[in-house]
Amino acid sequence: MALQTDQYARERRAAVEPLSPTEAARLALVAVHTDHAVVLADAHGVIEWVNDAFCELTGYARHEAVGVTRLSLFTHTVSATVVAALGGEPTERPARLELLTRSKQGHPYWTYIEVRPVIDQGEVAQLILLESDVSATQVAEHQLLEATRRAEHLAAELSAEKSVLAGVISSIPHLVFWKDLDGRYRGVNAAFLAARGFTDPDEIVGQTEQELGTADAFAEALGHAEPTARGGVAVIDQQVAVTSVDGTARNLLLSVLPQRSPEGLLVGVIGVGADVTHVAELERALAQANRLESIGQLAAGIAHEINTPVQFVSDNARFLAHSFGELPILGQIEAILGAGEGPDEDPTRQLAELRGAVAGVELAFLAAEIPQALAESQEGLTRVTQIVRALKDFSHPGSGRVETDVNRAVESTVQVSRNEWKYVAELSVDLDPDLGLVPCYEGELKQVVLNIIVNAAHSITARRLATDETELGRIALRTERCDDVVRISIGDDGTGMDEDTRRRIFDPFFTTKEVGKGTGQGLSLAHSIIVQKHGGQIEVQSAPGQGATFVLVLPARWENVNQSDTETSRT
Amino acid sequence: MRSCRVLFVDDEPNILSGFRRMLRGHIQDWELFYAGSGAEALELLKTTEIDVIITDMRMPGMDGAQLLAAVRQLHPSTARLILSGQGDRESIISAVGPTQQFLTKPCEPEVLVGAISRVLAVRDLVSDERLRSILGDIDTLPKPPGIHEQMMEVASRPNCGISDVVAVVESDLSLCADILRLVNSAFFGLSSRIESIERAASLLGLDTIHALAISGKVFGAGAPVPRNLDVTTLRNNSMRIAGLARTIATKEGWPRETVSQTFLTALLRDLGLLVLAGIDPDGYDLVRRVPPEDIWAVSQAELAAFGCTVPEASAYLLGLWGFAEPVIQAMACQPAQISGPPVSPIAHAVGFAHRRLHQRIVEAEPDPDSWLDPIRTARWNALCADLEESVSEST
Q1: Which domains occur in chain B, in start order?
Q2: Cα(A286)–Cα(A522) distance, rounded to whole angstroms?
Q3: N or C end of chain A: smaller count of CB under 10 Å?
Q4: Is B107 in Cβ contact with A423 (below 8 Å)?
Q5: CB contact, 8 Å: B28 with chain A?
Q6: Which residues have C-beta within 8 Å of that of residue A162, sequence separation ≥ 6?
Q7: Model ipTM?
């Protein structure tokens, strides 16, 4: 077939009129010097001439190319379009091709081929092929395409991410907001809107808290945290009280954080508020349970404290009843006195009767014992009264944070716990008369003091058991006022504790006592009551064998009591 | 003979002076002593023989349980009572070993005086001071090996029921006595309603039984079981007598309290044997040779071998432990006299049941004026025959 074509091509060439020498020279010059590869072929595509650019582009020498078709120079299969344009039937229509091909040496490149038929007398006489390497353009185009595609993809991803993020923020059940440095809201989530009684972020965004003018105490709640965050310092987990839309009190755990640009500049603040109202309720319930538990523990001891005086008071009452049963003397004395008054009555007979009545009775014994029995009974009744009053005092839960007589609270706690310590320790109380009234949650404070006293007694018991000690231990309670704080210290000479234990004592459920002796809640509760509720501190000094001293430090004035605390007390 | 001596110990001086005044009108023949602490009490005991000591539980220094443990060791024949204002289970359990009786404050004078009187009364049953010391030294009765472990295992089961506990308790007379002693104590104050071990166990409650099993103080092994004593037969016989006596008391329509006392007397009649056979195994061998149906000969042999009869020793123990007076009296006069001072219906019922165990038919007493006349004897024989029949049918 190829042979036939060659044959034919030669015949066709013979039929072409030769170019004029000037024309040929001019044309040849153009063809030779152009950067494009130029191919001259007959109507059937058989190459008659190629320029140097062609040889350079395709890697074929001129003599290799001339006499064959352009198509046959492709070393790979090509598409039907290329076959139609370059080989076989001559066509009058020009064609443009772009395909990835290889040079003779196997170097791949993108080639652009323009096929121009030369029409002579209505017939295709010749084909001129212009070829160029468009690899660079192709790659650039590809890159551009890729880049565009990537950008589109990224945009899609970003918008998906953004909607996820928006969904996440809005579905967080906590109140989320962000503001600029002027205090204007930049954005809020759904929980924030709902909690504050708004429906659309547009109602809030762009406004300051003052401009919103709501009466839900939110502005006050932010009052301290926001300026701090604006100063670049994060405020974490601050308990604040606000009012919900329906007017009920809510407790928020509020964090306000500085927001910075990528360059590190402060641009605003981000706030997150968690509604911990039910957590606060749980804590209250736990504290209540702890108090009931310790009252339960105390009950046996208090029963003993009451049963002892009841025993001797009733014994004395028996004795008195018996004594006066033996001595119907009052009637006889009356008779004697009555007899002495009458003009003709002589009391001698009645006197003799009285003597007879008391003859078998040790009068001296009774004279000594009766007043003493009465005095001891009186004392016993006073003790019962005291313990009952202390118990009542102790059990009174108090109402919020109010001015409290801390000395009295300490004393009533010492009273009700008497039976817990009196067999193992002597307890001394040194109360500062100038303590004054201190803003306290009284019930909780007494609970803490009780827990620490009971721990002290247990610790002394443990030490005495370990060392077979018969001497009583010591528990020392002190209250004192130091400027703006009051200090309640409770020291014991029990076993003491090592550093490792000391670090863990405030952990919930941590206990060194045997199973069934303690729930490990006492000191953890003490910590949350003194530190979180009162804004105070607990100091612990202890070492093994050195006993332990707990110092409760409480703010003594309302001014030092955190704003948020007063809020809580109002609820 | 010197008068009875009673020592009160309490760290609260007002309590002691209250006792002094209150008891003044109640007693003439007691000599009363007072101590303000355990140490003071032990000091007094060095020089003075004391019959009964009554101490408070919680005191600084030595507490009541520690004091009584020391008294048990140094002066075992002194009866040991606790009078505590602390009404909680833990303190009772902690003192259960050396303590023979618990009383709780506030305590009525009649109750206090009654408890002391009963303890003093049983001292006449056992005249031998040495024997009194041995009986007084007992804190837990001898038990077969392994029974404490079995009790622990059952009580620790998560789904343990009363019937599981009862099965173990009823398998051994010592355990029965432990349970009854606790239920009977003034702290639980439930003695009038015990007609069975099951009732006693449920009155005590599973929690308490569990706590007691763990403490090891009650159901613990105690002294080893006497080598020549067949505890299984002893237990079987005791359960049978108790069943017969209870049936008689119930069918006679006696009050519930009397039924309960009849049951207790019959069940614990031979409890003393656990101790006596251990003290003198050779003497017990002699007693064993006497045919059991010859009740009087057995009683004589016991007296000769041990210095008191088995029911007397049992009554002494129950007296120390504060069991009700009718129980102690009915037990102390076993075997019930044919002729002699009249005894209570309880004593008759227990005596009858005991004889019935060894004799096919209990003969009517020759004295036609006896409370246990031929008609009653015939009726009781018939009751026992019915019961024995139903028992043998069910097995």
Answers
A1: 4-125 (3.40.50.2300), 147-215 (no CATH), 231-394 (1.10.3210.10)
A2: 11
A3: N
A4: no
A5: no
A6: none
A7: 0.74
